[in-house]
Amino acid sequence: MYESHTKHRRSLDLQIVKKPPGEHGMLPPGPHPWPLLGNLLHLGELPHQYLAALAKKYGPLMFIHLGSIPAVVVSSPAMAKEFLKTHDLFFANRPADSAGIYLAYEGKDMAYASYRDYWRPMKKLYTIELLTPKRNETFKSMREEEVAGIIRSIWKQSEQGARCVDLTKLLFSLTLNIFSRMSAGRIFSDHEFRGGRKFKEIMGEGMDLAGTFVIADFIPLLKYIDLQGLRRQMKSLHGPPNTR
Fold it and tell me: Its principal location (predicted)?
């Protein structure tokens, strides 16, 4: 139901606010929260649309509660610049959630790591080894090959009479192939090496789980109760990539 919550952040940027207990300060305006659940029930299946409607009422900076978690919603380019550029270091950390704990080695993954001593050298390593202009130029032909392969796949499907194309599946394969060729020098596809299909399945399931709403992340009282069974899935998924 809430899977789209993490898939529509292009339209509205959401920042988690952590303040000492009892310290409220001058908070932005926002809708009144329900006890325990906060504003979660209002989000529905299309939270980006609900938040966009709220932004028209409360302005480009508003305060909501995601369960027991206070959050600020930013919905204008100027305000986003203040958060992501002018004061970016204050908001550089992301809150610990189930995906970061169980799928990313307790926040050791680049996307989940806190802005501390571990993250900074990791960023430097990524930048030097993968993201410099020289490296980008080195990988240019590889990226072009992979994009051309996707285009050929779409063309082949159209020749076979397919009326619809699963872009999600194609773009996932494209991203995974580019990443694997950049980082490991090989394509993790079905025919390239033993276990390739399983690897793709694990990666796909991991991405789906990482984008799924875990209610315990927003209601701490449920921290030790895996109501949805999602944390169990994350734990079971965490091992296979390291043992194949």
Answer: membrane
